[in-house]
Amino acid sequence: MQEPMYVRTTYVTGDPAQLGAALDALSREAPDLLRAQAGFRRFGLFADREVGKLLMGSWWESESARAESDKMLRERRMELLQPFATTVTTEAWEAVSFTPQPQVGPGGWLRTGRVEFAPSDAALYVSTFNEMGRPGLEAIDGLVGATLFMNGSAGRGMVGTLFRDKASMIASRGPQAAVRGEGLKKANVTLLSIEEFELVTMARADG
């Protein structure tokens, strides 16, 4: 089994006309700010420019590193999001099953699916994703990475899938729906929403 990674996501909405400036500021500053923090592993910044949404996630080697970095960076993060941000939601997750080194670059896209389940079914969901979900997703053409993010005690999860480009993501909608439907039914999981974002920038601890 994989050792979990500890992830912080920030989901932000606002005026689409002001989103570009926030993305530019985050792309310039966030990678170096994060690399300066102990335990940092990777970062992704994603956007829906039409609706006015951004999603960013940072990965950490431990819960303590994730918590300490949040204390250090929270104020600057909020500054970089202004004046775009009208709503900001930050969540803590465990990445319990993931493609180890997804190869994605400029032109990549992300699809997220948010789910809920009874906390007593958390272990079943993880095992189902490991046995059926991730292998099925990784077999889809153009899909370069799949991750299950969990908050098991709260009965919440999110699946993130990375794609080589927008065309691959669009072509994957049917195949991924089939994988999703089979796995969620087996694990007693309810799908809440699906969203799609373009990749703006990614960073790793090693550059």
Count every helix, treating DSSP H or I runs of 4 or more residues as helices.
Answer: 5
Oligomeric form of this entry? single chain
Mean pLDDT equals: 97
The helix content is 25-40%
CATH architecture assignment: 2-Layer Sandwich
Please provide the count of β strands: 8
CATH class bucket: Alpha Beta
Low-confidence stretches: none
Question: Main attributes?
Answer:
207 residues, alpha+beta, Alpha-Beta Plaits, 8-stranded antiparallel barrel, globular
SSE diagram, text form:
Layout: E1 5-14, H1 16-35, E2 40-48, E3 53-60, H2 63-81, E4 85-98, E5 109-116, H3 122-138, E6 143-151, E7 156-163, H4 166-171, H5 173-187, E8 190-204
Antiparallel strand pairs: 1-3, 1-4, 2-3, 2-8, 4-6, 5-7, 5-8, 6-7
Helix pairs in contact: 1-2, 3-5
Q: Would you kindly provide a written description of the structure presented here, covering whatever features stand out?
A:
With 207 residues, the chain is of the alpha+beta class. It has one domain (5-204): Alpha-Beta Plaits. It is built from five helices and eight strands; from the N terminus they run βαββαββαββααβ. It has helices spanning 16-35, 63-81, 122-138, 166-171, 173-187, and strands at 5-14, 40-48, 53-60, 85-98, 109-116, 143-151, 156-163, 190-204. An eight-stranded antiparallel barrel has the order 1-3-2-8-5-7-6-4. A hairpin with a 4-residue loop joins β2 (40-48) and β3 (53-60). It is globular and about 45 Å long. The mean pLDDT is 97.
